[in-house]
């Protein structure tokens, strides 16, 4: 649905002329629609001001001009609402859409790393104290050569 904040401000000028085209009266004013909403689209609040209150021109603008502005604003808001509905309809998945994709089956990867064993005395000392130092690196290996296992040594293959 459409949520919006819409305010309309209009400055207007008008004049009346006689049959020969001579200007009889001129006036200026403003119209303001402070809160145009979908719930009050048929009869929005209009604040009307005129420099010459009570004149024929001012009253014509109050009646006919305000009605014209209300109709124009209503048409614009309805058009915007229709655009939003059309856009939402395009984004909705079709009712009989394609079947969901099947998740790919994990495939075990082969890790190629030389296994280096610590000397028996160093391994026994580490077990006795509960402290194990870093395992010696194989020749030609680097810190990045751990098979993507997040810090585990590269001497274990992933479970099948």
TrEMBL record:
Belongs to the AHA1 family. Residues 86-100, 113-141 have a biased composition (Low complexity). This is Activator of Hsp90 ATPase AHSA1-like N-terminal domain-containing protein. Residues 86-160 are annotated as: Disordered. Residues 147-160 have a biased composition (Basic and acidic residues). InterPro entries: Aha1, AHSA1-like_N. It holds the Pfam family Aha1_N. GO terms for molecular function: ATPase activator activity; protein-folding chaperone binding.
């Amino acid at each position: 649905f459409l949520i919006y904040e819409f305010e309309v401000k209009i400055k207007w000028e008008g004049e009346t002329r006689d049959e020969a085209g001579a200007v009889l009266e001129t006036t200026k004013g403003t119209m303001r629609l402070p809160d145009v909403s979908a719930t009050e689209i048929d009869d929005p609040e209009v604040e009307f001001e005129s420099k010459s209150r009570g004149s024929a021109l001012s009253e014509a603008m109050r009646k006919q001009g305000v009605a014209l502005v209300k109709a124009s604003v209503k048409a614009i808001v309805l058009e915007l609402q229709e655009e939003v509905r059309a856009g939402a309809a395009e984004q909705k998945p079709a009712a009989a859409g394609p079947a969901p994709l099947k998740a790919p089956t994990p495939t075990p990867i082969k890790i190629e790393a030389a296994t280096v064993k610590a000397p028996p005395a160093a391994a026994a000392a580490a077990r006795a104290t509960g402290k194990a130092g870093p395992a010696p690196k194989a020749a030609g290996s680097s810190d990045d050569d751990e098979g993507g296992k997040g810090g585990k040594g590269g001497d274990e293959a992933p479970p099948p």
